[in-house]
Structures are given as C-alpha cells and as structure tokens.
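Field reference: "sequence" (input) and "structure" (output). Example, F0F1 ATP synthase subunit epsilon:
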Amino acid sequence: MSTLEVTFVSADRTVWSGQAAQVVVPAADGSMGILPRMQPTLAILDRGAVRIIGEDGEATERDVEGGFVSMDGDVVTIAVDHAARASAN
C-alpha cells in the first residue's frame, strides 16, 4: 500500500509530519482529497479544516484560514499562516 509523506507547517511551527493514507484540505474551489499516486497538484486553501488520516486510520484535524497545498510524487506540503485545533461541532 502506498502512503503519502506529509509535512504540515504554520508560520511558527511544524503542525504535523509523517506518513499518511489520505489528506483532505479546504481548497479555494471546494474540499479536495489527496491520495497516493495522484497527479501533481498545487492549490490555494480557503478557511476550513485540514484532515490528515494516518496509516493507522487515526485522524488529525486542524482549522486553517488560508495557505496552500502542494503534492508531487506522494510528497504533500501544506503551508498556512495559522493552524488551530479543530472546534467540536
């Protein structure tokens, strides 16, 4: 099974780094799921939640208010100004 190598950073720290099965981001034109072996992608992020699903199925979620995501060769980079723990609904 292929995995993604994810680096999620904010202006002041690394938010999350490691192997993941899937990443879901709030792209400016709608929610976007990223899976291994996808075409290279670059997208602007809007306000919403970034969700990273680890190899073990455990999900990490952070609220963001913009930034970008880049994916190439199963390497995903998420860069935002600020990332906060996702609020409970």
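Residues 6 and 32 are 15 Å apart (CA to CA).
The chain has a mean pLDDT of 94.
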